[in-house]
Here is the input.
Amino acid sequence: MDLSHGDSLDSMEGVPQVRAYQLDTMISIVLRLGVSIAAITVVAGYLLYLSHYPGHAPALGSFRMPPIMHHRTGLLGLVQASVARHSGRDIIDLGLMMLVVTPVVRVAFSVVVYLYEGDYRFVWITLVVLTILLLAMSGV
Amino acid sequence: MTGIDFEALVFCGSVLAGLLGALTGLGGGVVIVPMLTILFGIDFRHAIGASIVSVIATSSAAASAYVREGYTNMRLGMFLEIATTIGAVVGAMLTAIIPASALGVVFGLVLLFSAVQSFQQRPQDSGQVIPVSDTIARKLHLYGRFPADTGESVPYGVRNVPLGFGLMALAGAVSGLLGIGSGAFKVLAMDRAMRIPFKVSTTTSNFMIGVTASASAVVYFSRGYIHPLIAGPVMLGVLVGALLGTKCLVRWKTKTLRIIFAFVLLALGLDMLWTSHTAIH
Here is the structure.
């Protein structure tokens, strides 16, 4: 993908159109990919669940803590717990987690794009956001 | 009610949530939580878990379209995300100290008051005003262009960045404390303080709310608030609704969107007052 560094030097008022357009397109693609993969996973998990329990009504009125997730914190622990048991419900969980991670991937991706464009002020800005996010997600 | 019937109804309600969320930049929580708790008798914790999933789904699906169409101001959004993420973390820490119910009453009233004002068209919506930006906005190139109702690409300025940044931190803290309403304060901060066009305010808010929500979602996952059989159909429905919403926002006049926004804000304010009144933790 060509990010045309040659045009960027003579920018009169900030971000030239070409670069802004390409960043837009790439962020748009990242978001759509994340959402699509997550949605496909949730649908697959749901179909698997239905094939195991045809017409089964889930007990949804009550709330109870999931036993496995008690002592696991952070995103990695959650994913491990989900993959360890492989039923349709866990595949749905996995799809939901992919969705949850999509905005974080978007931020991480924009760090790389700003770095590539040489927009160091925004590299720092997006890095700060990414750091806060990852700290909050790791359960600190 | 069998499992499939329940899931189909939740899916349909979620389409509406995604549609409204994408049109207003407020996320879908205002529809999801009352629908699940009042209509289906779902536990409040499962409802807010599904609601946070709906916010991320709306944000990501709609943003992918709005960014491409040139409405979202990504630079402004990413800059303000510093304020909202720090605010959200601080807000979550303060839950033990600040009584959320009292705070909910205050912010619920603020939303009701803002809803009344939101009906009015503001000068920047037309794109006919001379774009004025403050020093920080000029330095960071936060101003931009957007497709006005007339169809042409119009430049706009961004004003009062320090005030907007402060309000965004507050918006983050409110969402950390109350779990709802982060989008409302984001749109209001951009619309009122920073004076950017309404469609840019709502789409940029929509772009930002997913990031704030994703941090909370991990906590909700570990507490077991996100139930796959509730959040799953909610997510799929919201995605469909959000994609429909983006088609509408592009075509509809700003005036129409302001009216929808005002009514959703009204509902959100009442919801916040009601939640604070019942005070479930």
User: Anything to note?
Assistant: The helical segments of chain A are 5-8, 17-52, 74-84, 88-117, 120-137. Chain A has one domain: 20-56+71-137. Residues 79 and 128 of chain A are 25 Å apart (CA to CA). Residues 1-18, 67-71 of chain A have pLDDT under 50 and may be disordered.
